């Protein structure tokens, strides 16, 4: 299974005054530093001014997680983070993030078959706190986008609470909900595969966190372009339409 190059965590952390986890470990810095960074980041979210940002300039991070199962409340854990930055309807191809993390639990055989992630791969991976810290550094204060986001939000919230005793406060947009508004009665399940096929987006590397994030980013861009055609100009407009969808 191909692992795309990881990006963003080091320089983002430096810009925000943090130290990446690998260097912090060498320097003997305590995990409290990572906790403090994550807590400060969550406190800065939900600012109302982002609602007025024109969609053409809205900065988002489209992300996906691979996990050991489907229930964060019943012991399933994150296996990998994948994300890519988008500005308006432009995908920033060079601004990508990917990392495996060690779930410290068994990986079911069907999950290995689905994702290609083995126990041997995760044994050498970052601890959850380090991977989460680097992912949140990459995200910064940007709006998050995911497909069927309830799953990803549940796992992010579980990881944030476990490591830092905070919950996700970032705004999260769901491409499934956008499709139900923009393309009503056009789909049977509104699955990622179905929507990608409908939009003519090639499907490749499914169930790899970064590849899924990149395909979801293309879907998000298609919806941004459609919303602009409908004179939906900012995030406040998006929320207003979704509330009536």
Automatic annotation (TrEMBL):
GO molecular function, one term: DNA binding
Name this polypeptide is given: DNA polymerase III subunit epsilon
Domain (Exonuclease) ranges: 59-229
Organism: Paenibacillus terrae
Keyword S-adenosyl-L-methionine: no
NCBIfam families per the UniProt record, alphabetical: dnaq, PRK07740.1
Coiled coil residues, start to end: none
Signal peptide stretch: none
GO cellular component: cytosol
GO terms of biological process kind: DNA replication proofreading
InterPro entries: DnaQ (IPR006054), Ribonucl_H (IPR013520), RNaseH-like_sf (IPR012337), RNaseH_sf (IPR036397)
Keyword field contains Iron: no
Keywords attached to this entry: Exonuclease, Hydrolase, Nuclease
């Amino acid at each position: 299974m191909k692992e795309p190059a990881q990006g963003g965590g080091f320089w983002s952390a430096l810009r925000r005054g943090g130290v990446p986890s690998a260097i912090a470990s060498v320097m003997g810095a305590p995990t409290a530093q990572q906790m403090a960074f994550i807590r400060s980041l969550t406190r800065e979210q939900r600012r109302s001014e982002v609602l007025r940002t024109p969609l053409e300039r809205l900065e988002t991070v489209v992300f996906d997680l691979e996990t050991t199962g489907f229930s964060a409340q019943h012991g399933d854990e994150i296996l990998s983070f994948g994300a890519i930055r988008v500005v308006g309807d432009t995908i920033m191809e060079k601004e990508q993030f990917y990392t495996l993390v060690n779930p410290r639990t068994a990986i079911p055989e069907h999950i290995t078959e689905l994702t290609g992630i083995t126990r041997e791969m995760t044994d050498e991976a970052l601890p959850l706190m380090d991977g989460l810290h680097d992912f949140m550094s990459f995200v910064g204060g940007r709006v998050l986008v995911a497909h069927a986001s309830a799953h990803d939000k549940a796992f992010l919230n579980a990881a944030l609470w476990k490591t830092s005793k905070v919950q996700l406060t970032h705004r999260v947009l769901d491409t499934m909900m956008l499709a139900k508004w923009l393309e009503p009665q056009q789909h049977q399940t509104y699955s990622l595969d179905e929507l990608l096929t409908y939009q003519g987006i090639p499907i490749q590397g499914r169930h790899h966190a970064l590849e899924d994030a990149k395909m979801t980013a293309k879907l998000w861009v298609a919806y941004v372009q459609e919303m602009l055609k409908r004179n939906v100009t900012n995030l406040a407009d998006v929320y207003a339409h979704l509330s009536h969808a």
